[in-house]
Design brief:
Layout (H helix, E strand, L loop, with lengths): L1 H15 L1 E6 L16 H7 L4 E4 L2 E4 L2 E7 L4 E6 L13 H13 L13 E8 L2 E6 L6 H5 L13 E2 L2 E6 L8 E7 L3 E6 L12 E6 L3 H10 L4 E4 L5 H7 L5 E5 L5 E6 L10 H10 L2 H7 L30 H7 L8 E6 L3 H15 L5 E6 L1 H10 L4 E5 L8 H6 L6 H6 L5 H12 L4 H17 L3 E6 L3 E5 L3 E3 L15 E2 L5
Parallel strand pairs: 1-12, 16-17, 16-18
Antiparallel strand pairs: 2-3, 4-5, 5-7, 6-7, 8-9, 10-11, 11-12, 13-20, 14-20, 15-18, 15-19, 21-22
């Protein structure tokens, strides 16, 4: 009888610590060195970097400490002892060197990231020391080594012919979780990594159901089929406000992350190449009304490309006032063909804002054609410039501002597209290159002041909010949960299960 009771207790314990959430797509193959369709939240859960970005700054992760020498060009990392990957294989400096080999074999794919073009050499000096040498100082080295990708470390045994650019055998990392099962379009299941060197998660399984429709995710949560929902677009602002009225649920928010904005395409083949038109659009959009009625005053209002609280970003710019009369003056005697505004079809917030902007611009004589786009074609439109207006985001901590401005130099994101035909584009690029090669705070601050002023005066950014990541969980199942410091860092390993009463 005692054995049966023990088994019942064990069975109930295991399944009581299963947490069920949902995501819009599968996590992918979870290759740490590649991008979509690999989901960043999963890359953060499965893999670690040399260092970790925290609220207090950069902290140790795989590396226990590091020295910076040679005028900011040499980084010497001391690796923690006895680390293992989730398959039990050793995680040492030689494994890190193998990862850098694989990442830099595919260097062109990562050229948007400043550190990629700074690396001169790297090597394992012994099993516990890894040395990284740069061709010039770069202030964002540690920040970029902490990112969700590509500088995360996979077991060399999981690579294919010592490479990851064409895929991996399996997602074998050293993070708090490992992938147990993935069923396309149905679920991904994560379980604790038995070799994780940090605090062990309380949960025995994390089941991430695949529910592409945001409304379906909310219905599943309210029906009790889900325990927690977190993520940038997992909960609409309307549902966040509504669910906050229910005492059964606990609402959580991250700290402000990237800037949610509309960008205007200054490419010479678009009507928005006209600077008066761009200026008119920016001052004719009633941002306060959008913030109040659509964003529901949840996220802090944004007036600039980067939150002034970020390093080097408070440069004394003036807010652009809402001024319909001035917008009409700028467009007097000018005619433009209908403007194409692209948004993600299944994103209700983008749809509502696009409709509000179209209404505002109709009041100054502009016609706006709204184009609902599937997510893949949306990002393709950003890249190829097939838009006049489109939604865009900066990337939050720790990308902003340094890594984000580095990405403006390469044709992979909307920012390159909207800037490429600006009359001062060469000056902007030269300014960015100086930032990427600067090391002293005084020099960096001056260069950032010049850059952010030039971009602000180019009338290509219409900032709306400094975005919060939203979450909700069931109080009867979860005691506490909090976000990490990156937008895609969900910290399920620190989630606390509510203990059942005896």
């Amino acid at each position: 009888m005692k054995i049966i009771l023990s088994l019942i207790f064990l069975f109930s314990y295991v399944f009581s610590t299963e947490i069920i959430s949902a995501w819009n797509v599968n996590a992918g193959k979870i290759n740490p060195h590649l991008y979509s369709p690999n989901q960043m939240y999963a890359q953060v859960m499965v893999y670690q970097g040399l260092v970790r970005y925290t609220e207090e700054g950069i902290k140790p992760e795989i590396a226990e400490s590091w020295d910076i020498s040679n005028g900011g060009k040499t980084y010497t990392f001391r690796i923690k002892k006895d680390l293992k990957f989730s398959d039990g294989s050793p995680l040492d400096a030689y494994a890190i060197q193998s990862n850098f080999d694989a990442i830099l074999e595919n260097k062109s794919r990562h050229s948007w990231l400043g550190i990629t073009n700074k690396i001169k050499s790297y090597k394992a000096l012994n099993p516990l020391v890894f040395e990284l040498e740069l061709n010039s100082p770069y202030v964002a080295v540690l920040n970029e080594l902490s990112l969700p990708r590509p500088f995360r470390i996979i077991s060399p045994g999981a690579m294919i012919n010592k490479s990851t650019k064409d895929g991996i055998k399996a997602p074998i990392g050293s993070g708090p979780f490992m992938l147990e099962e993935s069923v396309l379009g149905v679920r991904d299941v994560f379980v604790p990594n038995p070799y994780f060197s940090g605090k062990k998660p309380q949960i025995s399984r994390l089941v991430m159901k695949i529910l592409p429709d945001a409304h379906a995710r909310i219905l599943a949560f309210e029906s009790g089929a889900l325990d927690i929902l977190v993520g940038r677009d997992s909960i609409s602002r309307e549902n966040f406000k509504r669910l906050s009225q229910n005492p059964k649920y606990q609402m959580v928010t991250s700290k402000p992350q990237g800037t949610f904005q509309i960008v205007l395409n200054a490419s010479r083949d678009r009507p928005t190449s006209n600077k008066d038109l761009r200026k008119a659009i920016i001052i004719a959009v009633n941002k306060n009304l959008i913030w109040e009625k659509i964003l529901l005053q949840i996220d802090p209002k944004a007036d600039f490309l980067f939150n002034p609280l970020l390093p080097f970003s408070n440069v004394g710019l003036e807010k652009v006032p809402f001024n319909v009369a001035e917008a009409k003056k700028l467009l007097k005697d000018k005619k433009f063909k209908p403007l194409e505004f692209v948004y993600i079809a299944n994103n209700p917030t983008q749809k509502a804002i696009a409709e509000a902007v179209a209404l505002d611009l109709s009041k100054i004589g502009l016609e706006v054609k709204l184009i609902a786009s599937e997510i893949i074609s949306f990002y393709q439109s950003q890249k190829n410039g097939n838009f006049d207006l489109i939604f865009n985001d900066t990337w939050g901590n720790p990308y902003d501002p340094h890594s984000f401005i580095a990405s403006m130099l390469v044709p992979t994101h909307a920012d390159f597209t909207i800037q490429k035909d600006l009359t001062n584009k060469k000056d902007i690029d030269a300014n960015i290159y100086r930032i990427l090669n600067a090391y002293g705070d005084k020099e960096l601050q001056q260069e950032y002041t010049n850059l952010l002023t030039a971009l602000h005066q180019s009338d290509i950014y219409l900032p709306l909010a400094y975005t919060l990541v939203l979450g909700v969980y069931r109080k009867d199942k979860i005691q506490s949960y909090h976000f990490g410091n990156m937008e895609s860092e969900f910290l399920f390993e620190e989630l606390e299960i509510r203990k059942k009463r005896e």
